[in-house]
Amino acid sequence: MTTKTSDTQTGKPHNFLPLILDVAVPIGSYYLLKDGFGMSTFAALAWSSVVPALRTAWSAVRERTVNGIAGLILVVNVVSLMLSFVSGDPRLMLAKDSGVSSTVGIGILVSVALGRPMMTAALKPFLVKDAAREAAWGRLMDGTAAASADFRRKERVFSTVWGGVLLAECVLRIVGAFTVPVDTMVWLGSVVLLGAVGIGIVLGGAFGAGPMERMLTAEAEAAAGGGSREIAPAMAA
User: I need a surface site. Which of 55, 111, 149, 209 has the fewest CB within 10 A?
Assistant: First the structure.
């Protein structure tokens, strides 16, 4: 009883923490500092890079791994800082803003090709909420559950959807930057970005996160009911 309560209490507060720290804080702080406090693009980018930089360094020191999403956001900010020196054509500045989406999208797709889908770190806290689901996640990921292959396939699909959506959003914003009136594109770019996020949520949920959650639930319930969804030993052949 005590253990179950402890797992629930420690799990819930951290469900959204990785996504908040790795994505929401740096992106949100950039717009807050730039549009809310009137900072220059350079200053806003520099200050919004602090959290991903600390997250990347902390994971490298403590876990001896590179935090994929935090590291990618940091790289994007650094590139944007260098590009912020480019001045003049307002259309070029609008096109430059789409570089964030393209860099993140390409990074996500590369991570899928390398067999380490980057969006998994952001997805897992939404699906794993207690010790039973954590154990089920481990079995599905390490290949000891019957549904492991399908689970890993849906994991790749989830990241592929987001990578593709972000690249498509980048293309639309670049085209708009050079064809749509500047005053219109200033607000339309945000609409395109929000639309892309919405599409990513819907498609990613339908083809990736949704099936993964169902498989995770089935695996956890099978283990709780005494059923075994693990792959049988070779001697069963």
Answer: 149
Contact of 222 with 228, CB cutoff 8 Å: yes
Distant-in-sequence, close-in-space partners of 88: CB < 8 Å, separation ≥ 6 = none
Q: What average pLDDT does the chain have? A: 76
pLDDT band at 14 (very low <50, low <70, confident <90, very high): very low
The amino acid present at 103, given as its one-letter code, is: T
* 167 neighbors 109 (Cβ within 8 angstroms): yes
Distance, in Å, from the CA atom of 207 to the CA atom of 89, rounded to the nearest integer, reads 41
Under a CB-based contact definition with an 8 Å cutoff, are residues 136 and 145 in contact? yes
CA distances from 182 to 79, 100, 179, 189, 217 (A): 23, 19, 9, 10, 49
pLDDT (tens digit per residue) in 81-124: 666 565 556 676 667 667 767 878 888 999 999 999 989 988 88
| 8 Å CB contact between 110 and 168 | no
Q: How many CA atoms lie within 13 A of 208 on its CB side?
A: 24
d(CA 175, CA 17): 35
DSSP H or E run through 232: none
- Residue pointed to by tokens 């054509």: 89
N- to C-terminal Cα separation, the chain: 40
